[in-house]
Fold this sequence. Notes:
Seven copies of one chain form a homoheptamer. By secondary structure, chain A is an alpha+beta fold. Helix content of chain A is 51%, strand content 24%. Chain A contains five helices and nine strands. At the F-G interface, helix 3, strand 4, helix 5 and strand 9 of F face helix 2, helix 3, helix 4, strand 5 and strand 6 of G.
Amino acid sequence: MVDWLEKIDWAELLMEIGIIALKLIAIVIVYFIVKSIGNSAIERVFNRKKKEMSTGRAMTLESISRNIFAYFLLFIFVGFVFSIFNFDITTLLAGAGIVGLAIGFGAQGLVSDVVTGFFILLEQQIDVGDYVTVAGKDGVVEEVGLRTTKLRGFDGTLHFVPNREITNVSNHSRGNMQALVDISIPYDTNIDKATQILEEVCERAARDEAIVEGPNVIGVQAFGSSDIVLRVIGKTKNGEQWGVERNLRKAIKEALDLNGIESPYPRQVNINKHA
Amino acid sequence: MVDWLEKIDWAELLMEIGIIALKLIAIVIVYFIVKSIGNSAIERVFNRKKKEMSTGRAMTLESISRNIFAYFLLFIFVGFVFSIFNFDITTLLAGAGIVGLAIGFGAQGLVSDVVTGFFILLEQQIDVGDYVTVAGKDGVVEEVGLRTTKLRGFDGTLHFVPNREITNVSNHSRGNMQALVDISIPYDTNIDKATQILEEVCERAARDEAIVEGPNVIGVQAFGSSDIVLRVIGKTKNGEQWGVERNLRKAIKEALDLNGIESPYPRQVNINKHA
Amino acid sequence: MVDWLEKIDWAELLMEIGIIALKLIAIVIVYFIVKSIGNSAIERVFNRKKKEMSTGRAMTLESISRNIFAYFLLFIFVGFVFSIFNFDITTLLAGAGIVGLAIGFGAQGLVSDVVTGFFILLEQQIDVGDYVTVAGKDGVVEEVGLRTTKLRGFDGTLHFVPNREITNVSNHSRGNMQALVDISIPYDTNIDKATQILEEVCERAARDEAIVEGPNVIGVQAFGSSDIVLRVIGKTKNGEQWGVERNLRKAIKEALDLNGIESPYPRQVNINKHA
Amino acid sequence: MVDWLEKIDWAELLMEIGIIALKLIAIVIVYFIVKSIGNSAIERVFNRKKKEMSTGRAMTLESISRNIFAYFLLFIFVGFVFSIFNFDITTLLAGAGIVGLAIGFGAQGLVSDVVTGFFILLEQQIDVGDYVTVAGKDGVVEEVGLRTTKLRGFDGTLHFVPNREITNVSNHSRGNMQALVDISIPYDTNIDKATQILEEVCERAARDEAIVEGPNVIGVQAFGSSDIVLRVIGKTKNGEQWGVERNLRKAIKEALDLNGIESPYPRQVNINKHA
Amino acid sequence: MVDWLEKIDWAELLMEIGIIALKLIAIVIVYFIVKSIGNSAIERVFNRKKKEMSTGRAMTLESISRNIFAYFLLFIFVGFVFSIFNFDITTLLAGAGIVGLAIGFGAQGLVSDVVTGFFILLEQQIDVGDYVTVAGKDGVVEEVGLRTTKLRGFDGTLHFVPNREITNVSNHSRGNMQALVDISIPYDTNIDKATQILEEVCERAARDEAIVEGPNVIGVQAFGSSDIVLRVIGKTKNGEQWGVERNLRKAIKEALDLNGIESPYPRQVNINKHA
Amino acid sequence: MVDWLEKIDWAELLMEIGIIALKLIAIVIVYFIVKSIGNSAIERVFNRKKKEMSTGRAMTLESISRNIFAYFLLFIFVGFVFSIFNFDITTLLAGAGIVGLAIGFGAQGLVSDVVTGFFILLEQQIDVGDYVTVAGKDGVVEEVGLRTTKLRGFDGTLHFVPNREITNVSNHSRGNMQALVDISIPYDTNIDKATQILEEVCERAARDEAIVEGPNVIGVQAFGSSDIVLRVIGKTKNGEQWGVERNLRKAIKEALDLNGIESPYPRQVNINKHA
Amino acid sequence: MVDWLEKIDWAELLMEIGIIALKLIAIVIVYFIVKSIGNSAIERVFNRKKKEMSTGRAMTLESISRNIFAYFLLFIFVGFVFSIFNFDITTLLAGAGIVGLAIGFGAQGLVSDVVTGFFILLEQQIDVGDYVTVAGKDGVVEEVGLRTTKLRGFDGTLHFVPNREITNVSNHSRGNMQALVDISIPYDTNIDKATQILEEVCERAARDEAIVEGPNVIGVQAFGSSDIVLRVIGKTKNGEQWGVERNLRKAIKEALDLNGIESPYPRQVNINKHA
């Protein structure tokens, strides 16, 4: 292979490069035509479906369909390109086996993404519009794909999470949620009286439509260094838990004020000496 | 393989695509028919069984049966689809060996899920309705599957935990639970007197049906910077431990108040100088 | 393999499925008969042995025997089932090599469990009834198996720990334990006098049967910001260390009170200015 | 192979080394010529495009084009060099298989970089000029490459992040952002009055062009040990959130001062004793 | 292999099982005889040696000898058992290759234990009776084995550490140890005077036989918020460092008291306002 | 191979060992001659270049050239030595395959070092003299090599970082840096007045040559428990940021003192009770 | 292989075992003779060298030479032993392939140790007597070996660090070190005056021979809640940094006392209310 360079027939080489270029252009053009046709077909199908199904579910299915279509096309496209270049590249690169091994390992992450993505979709773990926690990120799902899931954080940030990073999925949009408020009262308060006041507040709060069950005072949760902690819990409609908690806090504070139960500021017993 | 593109017989290709499409449709139809028949059969069997067995165990078995049936069907389905496409895809993709390697590694996680899931079921580590801690998530089990376990957190969140993430299983619904209350008293209290008061409270509390054993005052657990900590422990029926603890806390606080043992606010000795 | 579907002889296929089903049923029946016979045999053997050996050791051996028997049976059972299905499944699944690779990796965890379990048993690292810390979980051992170890936490939770998760085993039930009490005294106390008082308490405490050695005052362990810390240590019978510590704490507190050495509340020197 | 050293024909060896050197020089010269031509071509193309497209997108595309071109050239270059040296090096190094294995594993990281980089670009996760958080680093993107992404931190540091380190991408430049201000008020303040004051401030602030939605007072967020925490949130244009928050803070502080609601300094109840 | 079940000659099978059982029993008996002979031989050898060598070293060597003997025997034993069962098991288990792979990976940990254990022994990193820190566990070595090392923690717990978990070994029983005492003095103390007092204490302490070098006052180590920290260090015999530190602390405290240098309680400048 | 030891021809063996020794000595001598010639050549080339280029860049290139030369030589040297010993060692070591596998894995880290090092150099991520943060270490680069990078920490420590440990490179010497000063003022200060004072200081500071842009008061950054925090930021020349910050701090403190805005000591509201 | 046990010729087996034992004894004797000769040779060589070179470097080279010699001998020794046992062991162990795989993986760590150790020595990263930080352990190097590095911690502990655990090496004995002292002064101090006092102290301190550069007051480093922090830095000879810092601290404290600048005790503004 030492005199490899001299043996090349330069005319034939140029010829071959020209043919490859032509094929490449043809494939690219076909690729873009098929892609745009497919995408508009998917869109038309789901526009009709959106009238029949819930929008969130329809959007999930549409984004998945696009995804599968896009990756399927890309695979075929890459396959064609490889089959064209195949001959030439392998000749140039002596260590093809090594390259193959490296690519196999490198692509492993991609397969891992797709397998995980497939099961997230199959088991309907997340829908577009759900509020979820995955891979340490909180947010509302904007798109579920075979490779990547997009979350919109509450602060406006857009998170791109590769599916392989998703292990546990915590979906906060599947059923009623709990509202929980901890209230501190001073140690010298009568626990029964305080409980009764809170229960009256809970009774009034229970009329709120966002509340499904309770709220109830469940008792003495803990003793702090200067306060007794009472806990109130209830069930609310999905997404309403924060509002309900905020309203409960305000109502309880005002009821305690009205009944002369003051806030338990930190207390300290001072034993004074003079130096 | 340079003139690969020219050698294709386009008519035959179209023909073959048509046949594949027909087979595919046939397989999909058969798949859905078999699936719906199987599922309704499973449901009927377990509706009968629920009268004989405890509901939780029956639900676990039903969810597993569905699972095994679904994955078994899916495997056969994918096998058929692969056997149809086999010929065509491998021709397109030159680097099939690499793809195979990548898929093998990617699917490894799935096998890991199923193996772990199998042993969780075989050893009956969790049942539907149990309160468990797995993979850092607390919750009540909603479904145990071969691939995924679903937990409902106390705040209403639905957690999807892939079985491979489950290493240690901590099941909080298998037997009596411990109720534990730590009580702080000031340093200048007589320990014997305080212990006696607590023991009287424990005696009254022991009449509660939720309590199985105790509660008892076990002694001086620790010295804080301004308080002596006494510990009370008891055994309760499963799921009753929190209620028992809350009731004990209230009763102890009221008994200590009645006997003039006040709460041990943080103390500080101030040595005053004037600048 | 394109015309694979047409070549199938459907009659023969049905025939074969029937035979397989019959064999399967036969194997399952045999499996359950052998299992119940084996288990009752094991139980009878160990009921006799329990009179001769310590109960804890006998229970460990019994649970292991059951385990080995169960897994041995399962392996043979799976082997039979595989040998029946062998022919049919491999034909369906084209990519058997890939599946094999994936299963090999997936099962690796199981082998790891069994190997670790084997050495835990061989080296007698844990017995049923021991209080141990493994894989970050505290508890009393309820069962040692080849694959899983069951711990009962002090709060009543049942932990299932796969043996592969067990690296270091900390066994708290193998020999005498240390009781350790740290006592804070104010900076202006005479250290010799305080030490003497503590030594007198230790002398009285040493009469307790649960104490094997000491307790002794070993000296000034540390200087806090407002206190001198003296340390008392002793050796107790296994499992008695917490009770001994609690009793020591109470006795020391009462002795210090009697001798007018008060608790070292945090001290602060205030230098007052007026704004 | 013992008498390997004697069998070498030194004249031929020198000859061969000379030829290799000539080829090497030729390849290096061609490499640099092709590279400079390619780069100037890319630059010219994108200078024209910048008039038509948004600058950020054009710069991203230009930096990618340069990247792909550079790595493509490098691969071919290394291929040529290897094909020249091939014969000689493998003869020298006995353990070529081992070396090959080691290189395969070593290069795996590089492939991982390129695969991840490819999908970051394909899915347009980041553009030049975006403010993003990747791999624990905050910063404005300066360059997106196939192997490395460059971020300029707010403190002026230039971070080089290999693409394989990028798992989750948090892009803070994709849509409106949230402005969030928490305000503490003393426990003895009337919550309704405080809320009203804040809402007046919000109304005036809403006239700011940078604000898209709100801001609104959403209620009592938490109870501190000496303060009630009210929360104000709003939507702002991208990049304006910090300025809006700072302005809101100043305006709210001044409005509260004007209405005599003072800052909630930490409170403590002192119970005085004299030693 | 479909009619595999019919072709079995049941008589011959039973025959063969009988022969295997006999062989097994023979091997087990030989195993236990050889083991007990070997162990008593090892014991006798080392009982003689203990008179010549230091006990700790002799015990280490004895425990290793037993270990190597036991594992060597076990390997041969397992080899025999396998050679007996070989024929039958491989026939039953179709997927022997997979099982082999899994076992190879599972046993990897065991080999890792033995290799690490071998080097710990060869390099004499730990002896029986040494106080060491390995794998995050503190304790006195009770046994060093090829697979596991046993540590007795100071609280009485027995830790079983698989050798593969041992990376860094910190041996606290190899040479003299440092005693270090930090002393806080108030800011208004004369540093020279305090240093002189400490040096006088050090001089007296240096007469202690447990001290090898020093102790010396090395100067002002740090400024606290209300105190100057002086540091005293010295070298002691191995194992005596804690006792020396405790004695130094007591002596220094008494010397400072005698010279009227009081303890630096936390100081605070109060600027008083009236609301 | 049992009578392997008898069949050796000892005379021939000694002969062969002699020849190997001679070859070895020859190779070592040639190695050192070539090395010293190469190194002095590199030095001479770069001494000339240093007049033309910036010193930092020239030093980087020189250290790399030496590196590549040294490793290239070492590889060839090891190759020769291996080719000599080849025959003898493989005969001695039966398990050559195992050794080969182990070496392949062991050397993997070395390849990883070189590949990472190559790209750090190619992409000019660090130059000699840059202040960088890599692998958790801060420092000024002393040498960039193919295998190891040397950093001089600010405390004088010399860090050797293997290149494989370098993932993210944070280079603090590439462009202007930010100076950032946070200033606390009491709650009862007029924010506008304080801002005006700070802006006057900033105006005077802006005359400093080290400052490139600003500094500016950007507003109210946060509310502390007893203070309002104002933030000042500016751009400085590289390396001047710390000096600028220190000067700004001093100037701001003096300006606030002059205008009677005092430091916001922590405040606490005391509510006094008497026991 | 079922009747394998019967076919053994017991006489020949015993014969063979005898031969093996003889060979083994011969090899062990030769091993110990060669080892002791080699070691004494190495010692003699380095005793001569120590007069010419610096002791630290000579000791490093000596410990390495011994190491390489010892491992080289061990490898050959193990090779011989294996070649003797080869035939017999492989016959006994059926699953030799599996064992080989396991050993290959297990030995991987050892190779990793040697490769890392080789480069630590080649690049002279640590010498005997250096104070270094490796693998999270601080200490003075006692021995650098091919497999293990021994550090003596300041508290007297001897750390054995396997070389594979060494990634970053932080060598604190390569060049001058920085002395850094932070001094807190009260907020009402004149910064210029305090700086001047510190500079006078620095001037006097600069006469110390241990100081190479500075020390200098570099300015206002930070604002604490009750203090201004000034920073003093200087360069010292290696190993003298702690002594210089301690002396600087004492001198600065005395100078500030002399000039009436008192220590900045924490300050608090108390606003008093009466309950």
